[in-house]
Write a structure and sequence with these properties.
Elements: E1 5-7, E2 10-15, E3 22-25, H1 34-39, E4 42-45, H2 59-69, H3 76-89, E5 95-99, E6 105-111, E7 117-118, H4 121-124, E8 146-157, H5 163-168, E9 175-178, H6 183-190, E10 193-196, E11 199-206, H7 214-235, E12 242-246, E13 251-258, H8 261-270, E14 277-278, E15 284-285, H9 308-324, H10 327-337, E16 339-340
Parallel strand pairs: 2-10, 3-5
Antiparallel strand pairs: 1-2, 3-9, 4-8, 5-6, 6-8, 7-8, 10-11, 11-13, 11-16, 12-13, 14-15
Helix pairs in contact: 2-3, 7-8, 7-9, 7-10
Amino acid sequence: MEENIKIEGINNIYKVNRKEKYWLFRAGDKARYFDNFYFNKRIGIAWDKINRFEQISTYDILKSEVEKLYPEEDRPGNIYNKIYKFTHEMKAGDIIIMPDSDRKRVAFGKIVENEITIGKIFEQKQLLHIKNDKQESKVEPGAINKYRKVEWINLEMKDRLSNKLLLHLFSPHSISQLSNDIKYDINKILNDIFIIDNKLYLRYNVNTENDIYARDIGTFYQLIKYTEKVIAILSDEEEKIETKINVSSPGDIVAIMSCSALILAVANYMLNGGFIKFNYKDEVNFEVGGGKSLYDYIEQRHRHKIEDKKIEQLERVLNIARENIPEEEFKNMVKNLELNPPKLENIEKNK
């Protein structure tokens, strides 16, 4: 698992590791163990006749043990595949997505260590045995007796999830690895600011449950336009900020851009309604109107030397921006959308 990375002096922005896996995990039949797993910071599986590490040391040994201990099971492959995924394929740093029975709540967490606990009888007594309500002809899995420690990061309501992610929750399997194309939808739940494949993502939460008006979304896109112009002046490179929008009341707007301290600083300020203030000593100082400076959250202060010609260009662009996006208009957008900007401190959850 890669650590949170440092880009050009900015620490602790979470970089999505290509090696981390995403697992859909069901908390028992009809998610009956959901609360137990969530509040005890763990996940677990049953088939309690498998209760020693020697029985799971290799796939072939596990397969043999299942067939010997559960001879009446007509689909033993389901059992040993499930146990093997849990004990061998899941690793520390992998992400767990655990829905409750009706998918109204979904817990997101991270496996915190590779150690597995097996066969603690006192823990088994805290849990109900799984009952087969339909009385079908299949073997009872018994009590939960194999556990992994999980640090739960978010507990989200279904309404906050993307349609793409919701579709994955309908997988019939109790343990299934999700494809990597879902990593964006999952990581925007876990982080306000994160990096995937050298692209920086900033998530702005839209919390209103009222109707969303085009003028408010338009204000946000105007801010993006002027942010791009300022970045182009400061960096001598054109930067196109992409957006993904899911404003289904509540929802979110995600701004996507290059991984650069300068670009992050400019975008974070201007999209929060602040404007860059500069002086004539060849320095640009970043301040946010009415809020905390980005430097409250980072270790190093950045000052970017610029030419007089660029200062004139910045003045021109920022004056136009102030005219086209009055402070009152920005405040109305924030109020109407109940807009929460991304915060750097939330990434401590992923350390």
